[in-house]
Design brief:
The protein contains nine helices and eleven strands. With 309 residues, it is of the alpha+beta class.
Length: 309
């Protein structure tokens, strides 16, 4: 069976009843399973992780759009995380018997369906992009802020599907295809947003920092802290521990300590195991030594049914 992962991000992280209604809409659908979802109050954002067949995901995501548009008004939304839509982004990632091409096909099909059904401008990004090769999500956000009245630029940088103007309450949406990434946040023991922004600029690839790193500085107002919010796009080339250590070093250079870090959504086992092995200074450790991996492999057991404590 072809299995693809979808990670829709919706612009609501505070109203529990709204989030639950949206989540309930996609529970128990055929050929699709909701693995995880988490909300952040300061970001005012919820990240969901679904897996399923292309047809199962198509039905689930369309229902998610319908419910989110019904319950969320972007005009009343405020939060620290950048956003331009009620359903802000929907990336697709190949998991099993699926390729990037399958994800591209699904992203483009869904983009057409969403734009037609809900009258929302749809931008395709990363591998699914049609107008600019591998158009990055952050570039689309900048294009939205900049805006243009030039028709030639609109043809190059405008939406791939749907109207040119944002939906009055739902904004726009970006749908894409990409490889797995780790959403990783590091909270700092300071309220100085400039420090978080300086560190984010220092570590991100675009500014000559670490490879495979996207980062921004965000204020966590309810906790009187700031955050370096990171997307690690290739944890094998740039290990998670290297990102953490670099943020820690840059923070200490500015006289600031780390309060904590967090994973948003799901992360590959290998990324966490590699980090643990590094900090424990394990000289000969191999991933095959993970008990759950051996049990799943040898006995074809679902990992969530194992009791190994």
């Amino acid at each position: 069976m072809t299995i693809i992962e979808a990670i829709p991000n919706i612009s609501e992280g505070r109203q529990r009843h709204v989030i639950e209604k949206i989540v309930d809409e996609i529970h128990n659908l055929p050929n699709c399973r909701l693995l995880h979802y988490s909300s952040d109050v300061s970001h005012n954002r919820t990240v969901l992780t679904l897996v399923g067949s292309p047809s199962g995901l198509t039905k689930a995501i369309l229902r998610l759009y319908e419910k989110a548009i019904q319950l969320i008004d972007l005009r009343e939304h405020y939060g620290e995380h950048p956003r331009f839509g009620v359903v802000d982004v929907v990336p697709f990632v190949p998991i099993q018997k699926a390729s990037t091409s399958d994800c591209i096909k699904l992203a483009r099909k869904l983009g057409q369906l969403v734009s037609k059904q809900f009258k929302i401008p749809i931008y395709l990004y990363e591998a699914a992009s049609t107008r600019i090769k591998n158009r990055a999500l952050e570039d689309i956000r900048r294009e939205q802020i900049k805006g243009t009245s030039d028709q030639t630029e609109k043809q190059s940088y405008g939406p791939d599907f749907g109207p040119d103007s944002p939906h009055p309450t739902a904004g726009i949406s970006a749908i894409g295809a990409r490889e797995p990434l780790i959403a990783f946040n590091v909270n700092l023991k300071t309220g100085d947003l400039q420090i978080a922004k300086q560190i984010a600029k220092k570590i991100r690839t675009r500014n000559g920092g670490l490879p495979n790193v996207k980062a921004i500085g965000i204020r966590i107002a309810n906790r009187k802290m700031v955050q370096v919010s990171i997307n690690l796009t290739n944890h094998e080339q740039t290990p998670l521990y290297l990102v953490f250590d670099t943020v820690k070093e840059e923070a200490e250079r500015r006289g600031v300590k780390i309060a904590e870090s967090e994973i948003v959504g799901l992360a590959p086992t290998l990324a966490l195991v590699t980090t643990a092995a590094q900090y424990l200074n394990l000289s000969t450790f191999k991933p095959e030594q993970i008990l759950e991996s051996q049990l799943c492999t040898q006995f074809s057991l679902p990992r969530n049914e194992l009791r190994t404590e």
